Backbone:
């Protein structure tokens, strides 16, 4: 008797997801069902008949959704991202649902986007681009500052944070970092200094966040920590939106305390980022307010979006789906419920 090929129900998909996933499985026997809507308890039944449900950063795998997935016959939940704050892991363990992720798809992609945001914001490249297209060649209002000789603060020196730190050292910046698990040998090799978090916030001309979202890091950037920052400092967040308390961020922008803010993530991005809302009214008042500041640059969670990163996300996701269907252990570093 032939065993049917493993079946994967993929939620919250875009065309680029489908292309990369199908390419990664080209030589393998898999059955795909792609859904454009997000996973939540009301949509979990769409995974009926699938071995694996595959989700992204804005899907909701809470206890109710997990219960419905298991009822639908799903035994494996595959996250095609590194973060897992949107999954109720205790509920998954209790239900016997295996959960895997892609812990490191391309730290270079996210690190390079971080540098792109910093350079664009500091040197007003986005403004200059729009001006020149309107034949306005004035330089007024486009003054930035040299990165060389300034101090960069890196919160979190995992793979991405470490790459950003090294890149900024290449610009001739002094780099100070905070991480609860410092890498002393790496820091010495690259001329990077570890310090406590308060000192990093106080000393940084450019502060970049590279930590996961946990109960301990939620609203890491709030009124108290923003007040520690130098007047005119730049804040960059490419990690998770809820690291930053948006209400207090707006207050410190309105007071001109901050020199600039670059965000690739936003606390309430669900239903906004990844979507085309150009013909609609934006309902999020805080995001709308952020977009009015001339010193705020926002991209819509695209730091990961390179061909190489998409290919790696797809490769690991497909591999874990095949392993789960065959009763094999997942790649060790990807397992969340083992």
Residues:
């Amino acid at each position: 008797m032939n065993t049917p090929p493993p079946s994967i129900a993929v939620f919250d998909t875009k065309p680029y997801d489908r292309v990369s996933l199908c390419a990664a499985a080209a030589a393998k026997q898999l059955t795909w069902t792609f859904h454009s809507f997000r996973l939540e308890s009301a949509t979990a039944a769409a995974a009926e008949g699938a071995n694996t449900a595959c989700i992204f950063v804005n899907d909701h795998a809470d206890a109710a959704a997990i219960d419905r997935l298991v009822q639908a016959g799903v035994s494996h939940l595959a996250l095609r991202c590194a973060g897992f704050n949107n999954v109720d892991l205790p509920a998954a363990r209790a239900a016997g649902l295996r959960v895997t992720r892609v812990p490191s798809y391309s730290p270079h992609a996210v690190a390079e986007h971080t540098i792109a945001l910093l350079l664009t914001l500091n040197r007003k490249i986005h403004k200059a681009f729009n001006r020149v297209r309107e034949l306005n060649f004035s330089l007024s209002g486009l003054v930035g500052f040299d990165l060389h000789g300034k101090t960069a603060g890196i919160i979190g020196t995992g793979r991405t944070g470490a790459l950003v730190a090294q890149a900024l050292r290449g610009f001739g910046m002094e780099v100070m970092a905070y991480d609860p698990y410092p890498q002393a040998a790496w820091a010495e090799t690259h001329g990077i200094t570890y310090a406590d978090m308060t000192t990093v916030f106080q000393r940084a001309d450019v502060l970049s966040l590279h930590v996961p979202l946990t109960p301990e890091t939620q609203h890491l950037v709030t009124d108290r920590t923003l007040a520690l920052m130098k007047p005119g400092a730049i804040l960059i967040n490419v990690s998770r939106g809820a690291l930053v308390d948006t209400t207090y961020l707006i207050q410190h922008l309105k007071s001109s305390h901050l020199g600039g803010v670059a965000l690739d993530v936003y606390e309430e991005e669900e239903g906004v980022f990844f979507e085309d809302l150009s013909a609609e009214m934006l309902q999020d008042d805080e995001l709308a307010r952020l977009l009015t500041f001339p010193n705020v640059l926002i991209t819509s969670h695209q730091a990961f979006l390179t061909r190489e990163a998409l290919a790696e996300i797809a490769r690991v996701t497909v591999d874990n789906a095949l392993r789960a269907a065959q009763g094999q252990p997942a790649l060790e570093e990807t397992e969340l419920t083992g």
Observations:
- The chain is about 35% helix and 15% strand.
